[in-house]
Amino acid sequence: MIAEDIGLSAMCDELVERLEELVPAVVSTGNNAKISIVVTLKHTERGDGIDVEGVVRSQDPKRLSDSSAWTQRLYRTEDGELTTTDPRQPTLMDTVTGSGTVRLKA
């Protein structure tokens, strides 16, 4: 699943961790806290893919801010889907035929 490949599950884990830290701080201080999630999509310089960058930032009643970030490159397939593997790059599971063409195993 593409969500797991690009690190969204890790970002959700980070979000849950921040919530577990911030809820008690808000209750004990009576002050507000904030969590921001930003996902940025950037076209690569060579134009052969998309970099997906995610940042989780939090601001609690005691500290100014805290953040963590991740980046993952994605490639667009011929049918417009996103994948973490370059569709032009053969994998180890590919079989090279005698004609010099690459044929993917099904």
Counting structural domains, the number is 1
Q: Determine the oligomeric state from the structure.
A: single chain
Molecular shape: elongated
Q: Kindly state the number of beta strands.
A: 6
Compact description:
This protein has 106 residues and is α+β, with helices and mostly antiparallel strands. Helices cover 25% and strands 35% of the residues.
Kindly describe this structure:
The protein is 25% helix and 35% strand. The protein has one domain. It is of the alpha+beta class and 106 residues long. It contains two helices and six strands.
What's the SSE blueprint?
Layout: H1 2-5, H2 8-29, E1 34-43, E2 50-59, E3 66-76, E4 82-83, E5 95-96, E6 102-103
Q: Key features?
A:
alpha+beta, two-stranded antiparallel ribbon, 106 residues, 35% strand
